[in-house]
Design goal:
Its main location: membrane. This protein is mainly α. The protein has one domain (36-359). It has 14 helices and no strands. The longest helix has 47 residues, at 313-359. The relative contact order is 0.18.
Length: 360
């Protein structure tokens, strides 16, 4: 009997079964991202990322302010140490990630590594240039726009959907971080351009790294990204060191205390970077950018507690606004995700009905 000759009741039964049956699909990174920071592993690596970021930041301050080391030497040592430890962790994951078994390297491997490595190096150099012209707080204020940059870059590079509620929830987060450091604002056009460029390269690096680390067919491990991009960054950094480094100052200040501090700082920097890469596999680039913004506010207040920096009303207000913004972001992302699932379910039902109608 042909399909068009089926009794009306049977046709209705077929239609109902096709529209009501859940569509099965393989678990993907999107499924993992739905839990976000509510995933125990993701939250653990978030804490590790915050901890090692704090260690790196305060040791940076000690090396540059107290030991008066050259900032270019500090950046170069960080890349050297993270290259060494990245190589070790490719063979000893230390429980931070699951190794990927594959034959050979993924397509365009070196092109991808050079692209990410160049953005890593550019972020470091532009950050140093910004600090040369403006206060740390001004750089952090400019970087507070990172979630907005990430939304647009994620849409262009990986087609990530960001709902209208999520988009607007980013505004109080960015505003709050700006207020946290507003008491120390300074403006300089060179510093402003360098800070904005740092923001752009860092967002590009994070989104492109997410694209590589969450691939379905050719998935890069965090250690691979850490190791190969560090090598690419060092290749670009070598000529920059000869141009930017004060060789006489390095010879004059280098001793066992400085050397041991540089080595320890490099270890902290490695674990800060690789924990950030591991975290990327669990959350979206926009959530990662929001977490980075919260981390900056956390480090600002930690420095206030440890170093006794003056606190103003705007700083306290900014912290409250950041906290509220994060709560709003969590609820907005959950709401937008529900709207997206309803929209997709409705679209799938319409497609299934059209298929049945064509068959009848």
């Amino acid at each position: 009997m042909l399909t068009g000759e089926l009794p009306e009741k049977q046709q209705t039964s077929i239609l109902n079964s096709m529209t009501m049956q859940p569509r099965t699909r393989k678990p993907s990174t999107v499924d993992k991202e739905k839990l976000g920071l509510f995933n125990a592993h993701a939250f653990t690596f978030l804490i590790l990322w915050y901890f090692f970021s704090a260690c790196t930041l305060f040791l940076n301050k000690y090396i540059l302010a107290t030991l008066r080391s050259d900032p270019t030497l500090l950046g170069a040592m960080q890349m050297v140490m993270t290259t060494i430890f990245g190589f070790i962790q490719m063979y000893l994951p230390l429980g931070m990630y699951t190794p990927v078994n594959r034959e050979g390297k993924p397509p365009n491997f070196w092109r991808n590594m050079i692209l990410v490595g160049t953005t890593r190096f550019s972020t470091v150099v532009l950050g140093l240039v910004a600090l040369k012209f403006v206060a740390v707080s001004f750089t952090e204020t400019v970087k507070s726009s990172a979630p907005l940059f990430t939304v647009f870059i994620s849409k262009i590079l990986i087609g990530e959907f960001t709902g209208i509620y999520t988009f607007f929830s980013l505004i109080p987060i960015m505003l709050g971080l700006g207020l946290c450091s507003a008491y120390e604002l300074s403006f300089n056009i060179q510093g402003f351009v360098a800070a904005m460029a740092t923001n752009l390269t860092e967002c590009l690096q994070n989104v492109y790294s997410k694209l590589l680390i969450s691939g379905e067919k050719y998935k890069y491990t965090p250690a691979e990204l850490q190791f190969y991009t560090s090598i690419a960054s060092i290749v670009v950094q070598i000529p920059a060191c000869f141009i930017m480094m004060d060789i006489e100052k390095v010879h004059r200040t280098l001793d066992m205390t400085l050397l041991s501090s540089l080595l320890l700082n490099g270890v902290f920097f490695h674990f800060q970077s690789i924990s950030a890469y591991v975290l990327m596999d669990y959350i979206s680039p926009v959530t990662h950018s929001v977490a980075n913004t919260v981390k900056r506010a956390f480090l600002i207040w930690l420095s206030v507690i440890l170093f006794g920096n003056p606190v103003t009303f705007l700083s306290g207000l900014g912290t409250v606004i950041v906290t509220i913004g994060v709560l709003l972001y969590t609820k907005a992302k959950e709401h937008d995700q529900q709207l997206l699932e309803i929209r997709e379910r409705y679209r799938n039902e319409v497609v299934d009905k059209e298929l049945v109608v064509r068959q009848l």
